[in-house]
Amino acid sequence: MIEIKDFIKEIETEIEEIELGTLKPETEFRKLETWSSMHALIILAMVDTNHDVTLTGEELRNCVTIQDLYNLVKSKKA
Question: Rg of the chain's alpha carbons, rounded to an integer?
Answer without folding.
Answer: 11
